[in-house]
Design goal:
By secondary structure, the chain is α/β, with parallel strands linked by helices. It is built from ten helices and 14 strands. The strands form two sheets. Strands 2, 3, 4, 5, 6, 7, 8 and 14 form an eight-stranded mixed beta sheet that branches. The protein has a six-stranded mixed beta sheet with strand order 1-9-10-11-12-13, with helices on one face.
Length: 338
């Protein structure tokens, strides 16, 4: 394992407040974008759908949406990324969510308890499981080196790395400060975590990092605080250019809302002079989240399918549904293929 620290993105917490930090984020982002393109590309990237589920519109399209639907739909997806390190293949699973256990997250458990079964069945659609997808890809659990999430909201990892681990050799790449926060959650954080599920997990199964690192050719993780204090984003260099993935926003058009046809987004960005629309189910440090999204936007290349939008791949992507009027996205990536 030979990770390389990204010095260009280090120490961006400069004096002068969030406005000064935003300027530095743009400058450093442009510099790292040029650096990162020289690291090469991974061997392959494939995308697999896990589950589509309801999510409050007021969270996912923070303050901007004028849709009448109280809920929208998001699809959780897993990326399988392979690269070579010193002659050995490495496999990273990004967002391998165990959605069966994730439903016991306090917020979603409460929502499920208040939703009639017939409605819940219409709003939740399971596409596949992590083990099922890996089996079809011909990947043995013991061959997986790393698991990574943009943050640990809803995640219960006991099946993956617990007493009888499904992934016996995998390390969970996580920001050290998010892992530390699980020991004493703030009330703003409590609805979205399952801290009790982490108490008996072996510490050696975690690979804590501090900040941003290059994992391998064309594969990096950058620290993007705000949505949670220890938020992190995946950055990959592919045959179509650079992509960034996280849950900082739930739709590609949230980074260029001036081109969105979702009701309210374009007018909102003009009125408030804000160039992005946050995913804000938790408002831990909103200005930092905004700045992190600008960093992601700076790094990502323009989409070859529609250059009005950037190659930002939401780890939970807005998905149109007839049950949610006014929330059908203008543009969707649906997958990364490399």
């Amino acid at each position: 394992m030979s990770f390389t620290r990204i010095d260009t993105l280090d120490k961006m917490d400069v004096e002068g407040g969030p406005g000064a930090r935003l300027r530095v984020v743009r400058e450093r982002g442009e510099a790292f974008r040029r650096e990162f393109a020289t690291t090469g590309t991974p061997g392959s990237i494939v995308t697999r759908d896990l589950v589509t589920l309801p999510y409050p519109t007021r969270f996912g399209l923070f303050r901007a949406s004028r849709a009448i639907a109280p809920f929208l739909s998001i699809t959780n997806r897993m990326l399988v990324i392979r690269w070579h390190d010193g002659g050995r293949e490495r496999i990273l699973l990004f967002e391998p969510s165990d959605h069966e256990y994730g439903r016991y997250t306090p917020y979603f458990e409460d929502l499920s308890g208040r939703t009639p079964d017939v409605i819940e069945r219409r709003m939740v659609k399971v596409h596949g499981t992590v083990p099922g997808h890996l089996e079809r890809l011909g990947i043995a659990p013991e061959d997986v080196d790393y698991l990574m999430f943009d943050h640990l909201h809803t995640q219960d990892l006991r099946r993956w790395i617990g007493a009888t681990p499904y992934f016996p050799n995998a390390k969970v790449i996580v920001q050290r400060d998010e892992l530390a926060a699980l020991t004493e959650l703030h009330p703003l954080q409590k609805p979205w975590y399952q801290p009790d599920t982490y108490r008996d997990l072996p510490q050696e199964a975690f690979l804590p990092i501090d900040g941003s690192v290059v994992l391998g050719p064309g594969v990096a993780v950058i620290k993007t605080p705000g949505h949670v204090f220890g938020n992190q984003s995946l950055v990959v260099n592919t045959s179509t250019g650079i992509w960034v993935s996280s849950e900082n926003v739930i739709a590609a058009e949230a980074l260029t809302p001036e081109h969105s046809k979702l009701p309210g987004l374009a007018s909102w960005t003009r009125r408030w002079q804000q160039e992005v629309v946050l995913n804000a189910n938790t408002v831990e440090t909103t200005a930092d989240q905004y700045n992190s999204i600008i960093l992601e936007k700076t790094l990502a290349d323009r989409s070859q399918a529609d250059p009005r939008f950037v190659q930002f791949f939401p780890s939970s992507e807005l998905t149109g549904a007839w049950t949610n009027p006014g929330t059908r996205p203008t543009f969707s990536h649906r997958q990364i293929v490399h």
